[in-house]
Amino acid sequence: MGMKGKSQIFDFFVRHISVTLLSICIMGFFAVIAMMASTLDPLKRAVENFSFTDIYYNILMESTEPDTSRVITIVDMTKITNRSDMAQLLQDIETHNPKVVGLDVCFDNEGEDFEGNDRLIQVAEEHKNIIFSQKMLDWKNDSIGWTTCIHSFFHEITDLTEGTTNMPRSSLYDSMKRKAPLSECYLGKRYPSFIAQVVNHFAEQDVIKGRTEEVNINFNPTVFRVLKPEEVASHPEIIENQIVLVGAMYEDADTHWTPIGKIAGVELLAYAVQSVLFSNEVRELPTWLLTIFSLLIIFVVQVLQHLYLTGMAKSPSIFVKYIIGSSYFMSIFTFLFTSLLLGLCFLVFKKYNLSINLTWAATAITFLGTSRYMYTAISDYFTAWKEKRKSRKA
User: Fold this and answer.
1) Among residues 177, 176, 220, which one has the least CA distance to residue 346?
2) Quick one: pLDDT at residue 174?
3) Which three-class secondary structure state does DSSP give residue 136?
């Protein structure tokens, strides 16, 4: 290859890399404005709380039939009003030999139902496969963690297995639940979460293996079989050797927004348990790899747009040259290409539970047209500056 050919290749890459970087700079400029301007605060929150997994789950919900869980059964305790009935419900469940029972309620005070208290304590002492919930409050910092822990009132008089039921959210203003903790820090010490305790007891081994991080819940649409208290006696087949989660399915105070809509807290726990148990929690690309992947996408789209515009401009057809070769049609083809890319990322997500966030790449692509004009303006400026300088020297 001659020097001219190498120079053309060099100029080709310089041009398109420059346009790519300019589009990112423009995107970054508007991002900084959005973060600093109080009037754009709602937009900032929307962008911060958005995840591409939301799109993937929406596609899954519309295109596939939900699976039915063969491991987890939920017993609805919405209508349970006293502790005696709760103790009886737990006893009825235990009659059918569940592998583990997760109780999504914390009996934080003794109250006045002394008979119910005694029956609860008796059930807790008799059955060691029950995981009781505990709640952490009053966060201090990363090293100290939570400073208040709410236990069941009888945790000091009988040997209980407890797990924290705290479910994090992305930010102060975000109510969307996407993650599940494997442990929580309380006064500088780590305690296993409710989810980790249920999974380990069901597997009869340490599945968590010392992991303490928050995992991304896999919300692949699932139907969890739900029993009313009066139905427990007649359905031993979906309780025996199962994970049975006991919680309120229809209590407004314990419902949470998720990528698949608003669901009960006990159902949220079921999705989290299922994700950890089957090791199919949603993974994300490392930041450095996502950055490279996003830059590559923007660069490829820029090259394709350039080739499209220059190719159409050379067409002998006036219609193709001025109509098909317009920015309008180029934007349509860019949208189709981006949609195809999104489809491929969805297939990767569906098969490997790997989420590829294209938010910033897609945003930067919208600024490529402006970036090309800016690159041309900068290039023309330097050309004119050099010519003016030469003329002065002459």
Assistant:
1) 220
2) 57
3) strand
